[in-house]
TrEMBL record, chains A, B:
Keyword DNA-binding tagged: yes
UniProt-listed CDD domains: HTH_ARSR
PANTHER family referenced in this protein's UniProt entry, alphabetically: TRANSCRIPTIONAL REGULATOR, ARSR FAMILY, TRANSCRIPTIONAL REGULATORY PROTEIN
Keyword Acetylation in annotation: no
Span of the signal peptide: none
Name under which the protein is recorded: Putative regulatory protein
SUPFAM superfamilies found in the cross-reference section: Winged helix' DNA-binding domain
GO molecular-function term, one example from the UniProt record: DNA binding
Organism: Mesorhizobium metallidurans STM 2683
Amino acid sequence: MTLPHPNADQISLPIVLAVLGDPTRLAIVRYLASKEGVPLNCSQFLDLGSKTNLSYHLAKLREAGVTRAEVVGTSRLITLRRDDLDARFPGLLDSVIAAAEDTALPMVGGHEVEISA
Amino acid sequence: MTLPHPNADQISLPIVLAVLGDPTRLAIVRYLASKEGVPLNCSQFLDLGSKTNLSYHLAKLREAGVTRAEVVGTSRLITLRRDDLDARFPGLLDSVIAAAEDTALPMVGGHEVEISA
DNA sequence: TCCTTAGTTCAAAAGTTATTGAACAATTGG
DNA sequence: CCAATTGTTCAATAACTTTTGAACTAAGGA
């Protein structure tokens, strides 16, 4: 079983920007970037929202071509599609991640979400 | 009379990304970038939408801090806020503009909008 | 097999954004 | 002053997005 992903040449700039323009999704990308190389499963993002809500946001990221999700057992291992994004939109991902770094994280339950390396 | 603009430190990354994630607004920015240095008034964007609709999108760009609008007579002279964007989010604007360059322009009335330098 | 864990799907509700047309305001030129 | 030009505002509507909970599927371990 595999989940649907656009191929690299189908990745659309306005869609990528719109998808990154949501604070929850930007935080997900930021977290993925901080652990680049390590595939994460959905439950690692539970700080950022409920299970259903994350399922929704992670699907948006995947369908936009920002992330890749590999099905392994009952888990989805999620990674950034850095290779394809860099090829298609050089420098974009890095500048977004760098810019996101000195931006406040979303507040969940009254305290700032932690991103531990 | 002056129009409200955020100051540089109030410019928010998710808001900028969301604002750029609309095809009409991305086309406006692309057009501004192609004529950088030359202030444009609203009527130069009429290919991209109706007068009211452009007023709406140009206000979004201004309120997000992406553009600056100077009131001169009955015109608004619109420019990219490159200085502030570059300071706040280094490389972001350039990578977006470069990426937008090989992206289809929005269709208006059945034919692709022209960006003449 | 039964239970748990991981995540999806669905439908409803709430909220937000985009588009339109008609009416308005302000400036400029005749 | 009058008319034209430039652009805004308003209210309505349409369209989309986000969030939620309940129900579901699929895999893995006891």
